[in-house]
Specification:
Blueprint (H helix, E strand, L loop, with lengths): L30 E10 L4 H10 L5 E9 L2 E9 L12 H14 L3 E8 L9 E8 L4 H13 L3 E9 L4 E8 L3 H15 L2 E6 L9 E4 L10 H9 L2 H12 L5 H10 L8 H8 L6 H10 L3 E9 H11 L3 E10 L2 E7 L5 H15 L6 E5 L5 H6 L2 E5 L3 H6 L2 E3 L7 H4 L4 H8 L4
Parallel strand pairs: 9-10, 9-13, 10-11, 13-14, 14-15
Antiparallel strand pairs: 1-3, 1-4, 2-3, 5-7, 5-8, 6-7, 11-12
Helix pairs in contact: 1-2, 3-4, 5-8, 6-7
C-alpha cells in the first residue's frame, strides 16, 4: 500500500490564525493538580475518583480517559484545594493522601502532579491525520509520528477508528499547516506501506456530505465494457483499444466509440446478463448503507453505461447516477452511444451538478475513483480519494486507499467502526 501526493492544483490558503484562546477562569497562575489513575478497569472508577475529590471542593478543568485491553488511564486536571481558608483536613497534602488511599483500596496506581493553570492552547493549524494499515506496524507508526514532529506539528491525541477490515487510527495534530503536513506525510507513507489522509479540523468534517464514486473498478470489481465484449466475442479487440487509450494514442471519447462499435448487433437481452455478472467491490454495500443512514447523499458517475448504473442506483438506493447510454434499435445494440459523453471533464461537471442539486458546497464533497478519467472529479471535490488506483492517479489525488475494502473510506471521514455497526442496527 502507499499514499499519494497532494493534488497538483494550488492548495487552498490556510485560514487566518485565530486569536489566542482566553485563559480559564482559574487564571494562568492558579495552582492546579493533575491526578492520574492507572490499573485494571471496572465499573465505578471514574465516579469513585470524583466522589473522593468532591470532599475537597475542587473545580474540574479537564478530563481524559482511555481504556485499552481492559486497562484504564484516567486523568483529571483540577484546582488545588484552598487549604488555609477551608476546614481542617482539606489541604493539598490531605487530598494526595486520600486519593492514594482510595486507589490502593481498588488496587490501582495514582500519580498527582502539581502545577499552575490549564493546558496550554493547541497550536495554530489543526488537522486530522487518518492512518490505515494492513497491518499497522510499530515501525510505520514511528515514521508517521516522526514526520509529524519534523513539520513542527504536535500530536494532541490519538485514538483507534477501526480494527477491521484494516487498522485505522486518527492523530489530532496542531501547530503546522494542513497542506504542509499532507505533503510531508504523503511522501513518507509512500515508502512505508500505509495509507494516510490529512484533512483540516473543524465543524465541516461532521457536516452532511455528498459522496460520488466512479463505477468500474471502484464501486464494482469489473469493467462493464469487457462484460459486454465477452458476450459479443470481441474481448481481445476491446482490450486492444483499451491499451491504445492507456498509451495515449486515443482519447477517452475516441476509445469509447471504438469499443462500443464492436458491440453492434448484440441482442439487448444481454443487458440483463451483464447486470447479473456485475460484482460489487467488498465493502461497497457497507459504505453506501452507512453513509445513507448517517444522512449523506451518494451518487455514481461512470464512463460505462446507464443500462448498468440505473440498475445499481435502484439496487443500492443511490441519490444520483449518470453514465453513457448504449443505443438500442429493434432490440439490438447499434454500436453507438446517445447523448452527452461522460468523459473526464464530464465527471467533474456532474459532480458539480450533483452538489448543486444536493445543496452541498463543493468543499463538502468526496469523490472516489481509480483511473485517469477520474482525475478532474477527484481534484474538484473537497476530498479526492484514489481507490486502488493507477500511479498517476495516486500522485494527483488528495489521498489514496490501497486495500480492497471500499468501506475503509468511512474512516477517512472520521466515522468509526463502532458507528458503522451502530448504523447497521438502525431500522430503515
Amino acid at each position: 500500500m502507499s499514499a499519494s501526493q497532494p493534488p497538483q492544483s494550488s492548495p487552498s490558503p490556510e485560514p487566518p490564525e485565530p486569536p489566542e484562546a482566553p485563559e480559564s477562569r482559574q487564571g494562568a497562575d492558579t495552582p492546579t493538580l493533575l491526578v492520574k489513575i492507572f490499573g485494571k478497569d471496572r465499573p465505578g472508577i471514574t465516579a469513585g475518583l470524583f466522589d473522593t475529590l468532591a470532599a475537597y471542593a475542587v473545580d474540574v478543568i479537564d478530563i481524559e480517559q482511555v481504556v485499552t485491553r481492559g486497562r484504564i488511564v484516567l486523568c483529571a486536571l483540577v484546582t488545588a484545594p484552598t487549604g488555609g481558608t477551608a476546614a481542617a483536613g482539606t489541604t493539598e497534602g490531605d487530598l494526595r493522601a486520600t486519593v492514594h488511599s482510595w486507589a490502593e483500596s481498588l488496587k490501582l496506581q495514582a500519580e498527582i502532579i502539581s502545577g499552575t493553570g490549564d493546558n496550554r492552547p493547541r497550536g495554530y493549524g489543526r488537522s486530522h491525520v487518518t492512518v490505515l494499515g494492513h497491518p499497522l506496524t510499530a515501525e510505520s507508526t514511528a515514521a508517521i509520528a516522526a514526520t509529524i514532529t519534523s513539520t513542527g506539528g504536535n500530536i494532541d491525541r490519538i485514538f483507534r477508528l477501526a480494527k477491521y477490515p484494516v487498522t485505522a487510527v486518527e492523530f489530532a495534530v496542531s501547530g503546522t499547516a494542513t497542506a504542509q503536513l499532507r505533503t510531508a506525510l504523503a511522501t513518507e507513507a509512500a515508502g512505508i506501506g500505509v495509507d494516510v489522509a490529512v484533512v483540516s479540523a473543524g465543524l465541516s468534517r461532521r457536516a452532511q456530505r455528498l459522496v460520488v464514486m466512479d463505477v468500474d473498478s471502484t464501486l464494482i470489481q469489473d469493467e462493464v465494457i469487457e462484460l459486454f465484449a465477452a458476450h459479443a466475442g470481441c474481448e481481445d479487440k476491446v482490450a486492444e483499444v483499451t491499451a491504445q487509450a492507456m498509451r495515449g494514442e486515443l482519447d477517452f471519447e475516441q476509445s469509447l466509440h471504438a469499443r462500443v462499435a464492436l458491440l453492434a448487433g448484440l441482442d439487448v437481452s444481454v443487458v440483463d446478463k451483464v447486470r447479473a455478472e456485475v460484482r460489487l467491490t467488498p465493502g461497497a454495500r457497507t459504505l453506501i448503507r452507512t453513509l445513507k443512514r448517517l444522512g449523506y447523499q451518494v451518487g455514481v458517475v461512470s464512463g460505462g453505461f446507464t443500462q448498468v448504473t440505473d440498475d445499481l442506483k435502484e439496487r443500492l438506493g443511490l441519490d444520483f447516477a449518470s453514465a453513457n447510454t448504449l443505443e438500442v434499435v429493434d432490440g439490438k445494440l447499434t454500436g453507438r452511444v446517445v447523448g452527452d459523453i461522460v468523459d473526464r471533464a464530464g465527471k467533474a461537471r456532474l459532480l458539480r451538478s450533483f452538489a448543486e442539486q444536493a445543496g452541498v458546497p463543493l468543499a463538502q464533497t468526496v469523490a472516489i475513483g481509480d483511473g485517469a478519467n477520474d482525475l478532474d472529479m477527484l481534484n474538484t471535490a473537497g476530498l479526492g480519494v484514489a481507490f486502488n488506483a493507477k500511479p498517476v492517479v495516486r500522485e494527483a489525488a488528495h489521498t489514496a486507499v490501497n486495500v480492497p475494502f471500499l468501506d475503509t473510506v468511512l474512516y477517512l471521514l472520521g466515522i468509526t467502526r463502532e458507528e458503522v455497526e451502530a448504523a447497521d442496527g438502525l431500522v430503515d
